[in-house]
Structure prediction request, 378 residues.
Amino acid sequence: MSNTEWIKPKEYKLNSESEIAELISDESVNRVIDPIEDISNDLFELNHPDCVDDLNRREQFCSEIEEQGVNYGKWFHYPWDGSLIRFPENDDYYSLRTFRNRNLITKDEQRALRNKKIAVFGLSVGSNVIDSTVQGGIGNEYIMFDPDRLSITNLNRVRAGMNHVGLLKTTVAGRKIAELDPYINQQHFSEGYNKLTDDILRKETPDVIVEETDNIEVKARIRRIAGELAIALVTVGDVDDTMVLDVERYDRNSKPFNGKISRKEFESLINSDSLSKKDKETMLIKMLGLRNLSPRLLDSGMARGVELTGFPQLGSTSAIGGAMASVAIRDIILDRKIDSGTRVENIRKVIKSQKPTTVLEDINILKRYIEYRSNHDK
Prediction:
């Protein structure tokens, strides 16, 4: 079952001003946004970069577009805010919004990146991946899976506002995609991963899978189907100020979780009814890498259920993780050499800043954590 809360923008090809008036009346349009002057000027510079200072040629070029009236381009009605917005035609718009990528990304590379399908599981950190990939011109179809609704506590790492709180995360992500590029196709699955998901992926065969779920069993099952379909998978874990990026090339016989857990442990996650909370926590620590977990993160973890709920995450790390994942996805699609493996980046080490805790504080936290694990292992 797909997300029935999501309503995609409605596309119109208009021929007269009277049709806009009809839409204002019939479709609850409360504002019309027509950036035709910006569109025509940007298209001139796209097509004639050697003549940007030739005012006569610019005026002639822009006039030919603007004289077409409302007939030029496509109009999209956004039902969630009542906007009716004019866009250039699909190809022109894509060329314009990726123009400043060139030639860091060539025309041929951008063409290859555009016509791809991306599946994304989990839309908290996953939303940061989508923000970066869509902005970078990667993908013309997104298949999104997440059962949760946006809460106020998500706002530290999801680019959204109070007007989005309570909406399905698939809806929040979908609106952002559509506002940037309404030509991108979207599929929303607001149940998250379930027994139908594998068949959906078999049918859709995405080019890359992004996995950002919280459920460790679901992580394993997504990797099982990625292996079956030989689809590359990318995941990013944000742990305090450290970002852990995993690339798993199931199109090149990668091991699940890059071999951080054994095959037996992987199979136990697939059939997880007998797994204890301790077993799951142990495997999650293996996946993230104990040395990547900061003392403050361990301290926060021990406070869950006492003074905190949920896993502590920082928006700054999520944003960097999203950017790094998007570069990995770009290179996978462009068939550059990017092997399976784990990449770890600590922001504080990069900027060479002072640690937030002293050595003594670190020792005391580690002692408490050892005691905490000992008590929970009984």
